[in-house]
Amino acid sequence: MTATQRRERDRRQRHELIVRTARDLAEAEGWEAVTTRRLADRVEYSQPVLYSHFENRDAIVRAVALDGFADLAIELRAARVAASPPGAGVRAVARAYLDFAAAHPALYEAMFTLPIDIRFASPDQTPQPLRDCFAQLVVVVGSRAGEDEPFADPEAGLLAEVYWSALHGLATLTRQGRMPADGQAARLDLLLARLTPPGPDSR
Amino acid sequence: MTATQRRERDRRQRHELIVRTARDLAEAEGWEAVTTRRLADRVEYSQPVLYSHFENRDAIVRAVALDGFADLAIELRAARVAASPPGAGVRAVARAYLDFAAAHPALYEAMFTLPIDIRFASPDQTPQPLRDCFAQLVVVVGSRAGEDEPFADPEAGLLAEVYWSALHGLATLTRQGRMPADGQAARLDLLLARLTPPGPDSR
DNA sequence: CATAATTTCTAGCAGTGCTAGGATCGACTC
DNA sequence: GAGTCGATCCTAGCACTGCTAGAAATTATG
Fold first, then answer.
1. A165 to chain B, closest Cα gap in Å
2. A181 Cα to chain B: minimum distance (Å)
3. Based on the number of CB atoms within 10 Å of its own CB, is B1 exposed (0-12), middle (13-18) or buried (19 or more)?
4. Strand, helix or coil for residue A7
5. Smallest CA–C1' separation from A1: which nucleotide?
6. CA distances from B89 to A153, A179, B145, B157, B187 (A)
7. Is A98:A105 a contact under the CB 8 Å cutoff?
8. Is the CB of A122 less than 7 A from some atom of nucleic acid strand C?
9. Smallest Cα–Cα separation from B198: which of B88, B35, B83?
10. How does residue B3 score in pLDDT terms, banded at 50, 70 and 90?
């Protein structure tokens, strides 16, 4: 029985290797360079082994995207809990989001612009890492003093969606040169100041 | 001389036909269905004639996108001047933007997500229709009572960029199912209320 | 060691963007 | 009008893509 166990472990390792290699290749040369042949070359197997792990090329992109959501969730949570005054959580999370998008453009592209087949905002079909990402936003815009009560503000879900849209817009438009990259900090400041003003009513 | 004139006119008409057909085909079956063969079939010419009009496939997408910017500029301007209280211009333009994105998803994709090679935000290299689009936003967020003074508010440019990002995020995330489509009106209301509050200081 | 089962690769299909070369058509000259 | 020339167009093909059937090689089993 240890033989089949070893084979399953090898298969899992090779699975990871493919995803990792696809991600690296995409980050280095763009997603259009991630062809099945080139990817097979890099992992030192022939093309058909890719199809023994993934249904098609899109499934590989999807796997990379899912990894990305897990990474993003970790970074957003870290930024939130590390925010020195808890009220600064929104800014910290927003900055972490933009930094993530800028640091891993191809990964971000897989997560948010390429046609992967993932249910978003579905209570039972949306993968956990994806829900975790959104939850960080909801928590941080919902309860600005207290924490860990996801829906302290009934408008929190809506506001989180608006925040997400704005951040996504900033990230994508600057990435592909549709907006100058240098004003980004000022734009974020303006967005934060108006969407969640730190006014006298600190709730 | 009338012979060459006629030929040039025919060439222009065929140019328009190609762009129009590419746009229709993309809107009907998505951009990945716009192959040079299928496009050539639809315009009832062979593939190489496409390349006598455009350098490559990307140039066709770019031409469609440029048409789209012209269309969008017209609709944004129309929405702005038709806004009954001039202060409602922001809402009118924002709604027109989202309506445009929802009504022509493939066109919007060409304009804002596909890799076309267009200089944005460059004073001398950015095509006019593109600048017109952005100008509508700047005017409407800058001077909320008076009009036609593009930079009444020095922050207008920045605020317009933030608006644009948020609208673009809303449009793209809802389009490819990354965000439920039904809350869109509520999200727009929230965005407008916070980004340009109609507060007592109506400037 | 021989057989069976599994894994892997070679070779190929249909389709892609793009292009070189020859065929076809129009216009101008004698 | 016949013949030449030049612009226009199409056929055929290249290298590449995602994907797969069937042969080859490798591994486990009796």
1. 4
2. 11
3. exposed
4. helix
5. D28
6. 30, 23, 9, 16, 18
7. no
8. no
9. B88
10. low
Q: How far in angstroms lies nucleotide C8's C1' from the CA of residue A33?
A: 25
DSSP readout, B154-173?
TTHHHHHHHHHHHHHHHHHH
The residue whose two tokens read 């809990």 is A81
* Banded pLDDT at B144 (limits 50, 70, 90): low
pLDDT at B146: 46
| C-alpha atoms less than 13 angstroms from C-alpha of B80 in its C-beta half-sphere | 25
The answer to whether the beta carbon of residue A52 comes closer than 7 angstroms to any atom of strand C is yes
Residue A177's region, left for phi above 0, alpha for psi from -120 to 50, else beta, is left
Sign of CA dihedral B167, A190, B189, A140: positive
Per-residue b or e along B141-159, where b marks 16 or more CB atoms closer than 10 Å to that residue's CB: bbbbeeeeeeebbeebbbb
Mutation target to probe the A interface, by most A beta carbons within 10 A, among B178, B188, B195 is B178
Nearest to A137 by CA among A106, A165, A108, A178: A165
A153 in contact with chain B, both atoms CB, cutoff 8 A: no
d(CA B25, CA B44): 14
> pTM for this structure?
0.90
- Top residue of A112, A117, A163, A165 to mutate, by most chain B CBs within 10 Å, is A165
What is the Cα–Cα distance from B33 to B42, expressed in whole angstroms?
12
CB contact at 8 A, B18 and B53? yes
Alpha-carbon dihedral angle through residues A185, A187, A188, A194, given to the nearest 10 degrees = 140
**Quick check: B168 pLDDT over 90?**
yes
Under-50 pLDDT residues of chain A: 145-148, 150-151, 200-203
